[in-house]
From TrEMBL:
CDD domains: SET_SMYD, Tryp_SPc. Residues 44-286 form the SET domain. Keywords: Disulfide bond, Hydrolase, Metal-binding, Protease, Serine protease, Zinc, Zinc-finger. PROSITE patterns: SET, TRYPSIN_DOM, TRYPSIN_HIS, TRYPSIN_SER, ZF_MYND_2. This is Protein msta. Residues 4-41 form the MYND-type domain. One of its GO terms (biological process) is proteolysis. GO terms for molecular function: N-methyltransferase activity; protein methyltransferase activity; S-adenosylmethionine-dependent methyltransferase activity; serine-type endopeptidase activity; zinc ion binding.
């Protein structure tokens, strides 16, 4: 829960100006204003011009890294077409179990696929469910494979806005006042389809009193203003409208970035560079890694304007040459001038798509249509590649190495795909035993020394069957609390887009207790229930704590015991390489919270009071690393921390970050007591 800016007590009254700070009462809001908040509140204002329309302007100097705005979505819903998702929370649904007759859990009233009863009862689903059940409509989506794209979801987001006309008229009016560009879209192929499907569904199937123009205007408002919303773990992809954030103007050299916070997807707008008073506050409506040809075409086709920003005007795109290719003459094996090797073709006028492209060192030219054709052909070649096969992307880079230089946008996209494949797909793991790891979970003890389970009988190993092969390998660790409960980290148990599995489900896990070794020994237990903290934030790793309930009680002995500043775990003396098999431990030092927060702020991480930092900041050394997330940080035999996250194993500048157990004592007692 947010805390008061003045007294640090729980608070629920947000500042109406900046929407960034909270107060517990009106007197404390006045006190906070007098003590300096008035100089920091609301760093922008909305202005209007004939050229830009409504846009956002800085009202004071804004520092790099400063949060400019935090805003909840006015409306959020599925994309126009997507794989089968839960209609309430938006998560991609796991393939159905065999014993479920190969179908998803369905809402008992409208028959739309859901995660389960909790999502069926969610407030976001109630209005649309009533509208459909009143007309006895039943959704007919059935399981047709994990990658089947469902066009039926195109009706949901517009329907949610239309239903707000009676449930929340003010918000409905605010949304309808946004730019739509309907007159430009109305005769496009997509809107011809929407006339047949969306309008028919709203008017004829549901019998709602809206005309065709209003319905299509809502769809067009989404296409013009909606943000692509993605969860950090990749399990959810939706679109949402943020009324204030939608006022930001576009620039291909945007001075902000945005992130999504929490399960309700609040958007935080963060300055990426210093912004001076009076400057436009900008975002990017297209993809930053696209070349100028693709960016400008996308903006013309989807946003209905021609971008003339500094980046689009520069034929080299600020020296990145992102959209350029090698000159075939200067880079030929028979080129007379060796010094011309590496020369690029540049557009003679980047703002004119018909302008020819000329070599920067010789007189060789090609027509613009040749450049466009070649760019499109290579894009299609790239899009056809198997997203799980690194060999295909490596071959693409090699195949076109004489045409595309290393920083060409197509090569960069291929390299980005390789980064996502390496270590995340079966057969291409970063570890010798093929174990799957989340890229930023740093939990293998660095510079540890061997020990035995007899010294740490509270230790439990959480074994994951990441690929459904019944090969259980250590993914995380935990602390035995009682004969049925283990304390661990919430980030261990998340949906993973690469495997398509939801690791909050007990069937993917086993617990080993009483073993000194990672690969055997001890006793294996099945898991009954996994209970991550309901407010765990996948982006900031706040509330990174979970309780695991085993199916059968532990038998306590000298090697297995419950828990009434060492870090035991499965360690490694180097910052990379395979894990040792034997349990090890190391001595850590707690790090001043302000120093830790200052350092992590440089990479956009937030250190909160519910966290603590430990390690070394004088030259690296002992730390947590891969393989033991959720393991304990001990002080005089008491668990004071849970291994949570870090920047790099044993990094001299960024210490390890731990969940502070004392902050969650009541939650632990309550959760254990209600889940026997």
């Amino acid at each position: 829960m947010p805390t008061c800016e003045v007294c640090q007590q729980p608070a629920n009254q947000i500042c109406g100006g900046c929407k960034l700070v909270y107060y517990c009462s009106r007197p404390h809001q006045k006190l906070g204003w007098r003590e300096g908040h008035k100089f920091k509140c609301c760093a922008f204002k909305i202005q209007y011009s004939d050229t830009l329309g409504r846009h956002m302007v800085a009202t004071r100097d804004i520092q790099q890294g400063e949060m400019i705005l935090r805003e909840k979505p006015a409306i959020i819903g599925p994309r126009i077409s997507c794989p089968t998702i839960c209609l309430s929370c938006g998560k991609n649904l796991d393939p159905p179990e065999v014993n479920s007759k190969w179908d998803y859990y369905k809402c008992s009233k409208c028959n739309w696929p859901m995660c389960g009863p909790e999502c069926e009862a969610a407030d976001v689903h109630k209005p649309e469910c009533k509208a459909m059940t009143d007309r006895k409509y039943k959704c007919d989506i059935k399981y047709q494979g994990p990658n089947k794209i469902q066009a039926a979801y195109c009706v949901i987001s517009p329907l949610r806005v239309l239903l707000m006309s009676t449930s929340n008229p003010l918000q409905y009016e605010n949304i309808m006042n946004l730019e739509s560009h309907l007159e430009d879209r109305i005769n496009t192929p997509l809107y011809t389809v929407l006339k047949a499907n969306l309008v028919t569904f709203i008017v004829q199937v549901l019998g709602l009193p809206f005309d065709e123009e209003t319905i299509l205007k809502v769809a067009s408002i989404f296409d013009t203003n909606a943000f692509d919303v993605r969860s950090p773990d990749g399990s959810t992809r939706l679109r949402a409208i943020y009324l204030t954030a939608s006022m930001m103007d576009h620039s291909c050299k945007a001075n902000t970035r945005h992130i999504f916070i929490g399960e309700d997807y609040h958007m935080a707008i963060i300055a990426t560079v210093p912004i001076s008073k009076g400057d436009l506050i900008t975002t990017m409506y297209t993809q930053s890694l696209w070349g100028t040809l693709d960016r400008r075409k996308h903006l013309q086709t989807n946003k209905y304007f021609d971008c003339e920003c500094d980046r689009c005007k520069d034929p080299t795109e600020f020296g990145t040459y992102l959209g350029n290719i090698y000159c075939s003459v200067c880079n030929s094996a028979f080129a007379p001038n060796v010094e011309s090797r590496g020369a690029m073709l540049l557009s003679t006028n980047p703002l004119d798509e018909t302008a020819p492209w000329k070599c920067e060192k010789c007189e060789h030219c090609i027509l613009s249509k040749q450049m466009v054709w070649g760019n499109n052909a290579l894009k299609q070649d790239l899009q056809r590649l198997n997203k799980t096969d690194p060999n295909q992307f490596e071959e693409f880079i090699e195949k076109y190495s004489q045409t595309l230089h290393p920083s060409n946008h197509l090569v960069v996209q291929a390299k980005l795909a390789l980064v996502q494949i390496y270590g995340n797909y079966k057969g291409y793991s970063l570890t010798a035993n093929g174990q799957f790891y989340h890229y930023n979970i740093l939990t293998r003890v660095i510079q540890g020394v061997p020990t035995s389970i007899a010294h740490y009988p509270i230790m439990a190993q959480l074994l994951l069957d990441a690929w459904g092969t019944q090969e259980y390998v250590q993914h995380c660790a935990g602390t035995i609390l009682t004969s049925r409960h283990v304390l661990s980290a919430a980030h261990c148990f998340q949906y993973n887009a690469n495997t398509g599995r939801n690791y909050t489900m007990p069937k993917y896990w086993k617990i080993r207790v009483g073993s000194t070794y990672r690969t055997g020994g001890g006793v294996l237990h099945n898991i009954k229930t996994i209970i991550p903290h309901k407010d765990f934030d996948k982006f900031f790793y706040t509330n990174d704590i979970a309780i695991v309930v085993v199916a059968k009680q532990f038998s306590f002995n000298s090697n297995t015991s419950d828990h009434s500043l060492e870090t035991p775990g499965k360690p490694q003396r180097q910052t990379d390489g395979p894990q040792p098999d034997q349990l090890q431990h190391t001595i850590l030092y707690t790090i001043d919270q302000k120093i830790c927060a200052m350092r992590y702020n440089t990479i956009g991480a937030v250190i909160q009071d519910s966290m603590m930092c430990a390690g070394r900041v004088d030259g690296g050394g002992p730390d947590g690393c891969f393989g033991d997330s959720g393991g304990p940080l001990l002080y005089k035999g008491l668990v004071v921390g849970i291994v949570s996250f870090g920047y790099s194993c044993g990094h001299r500048y960024y210490p390890g970050v731990y969940t502070k157990v004392s902050h969650y004592t009541n939650w632990i007692l309550r959760t254990v007591g209600s889940n026997k």
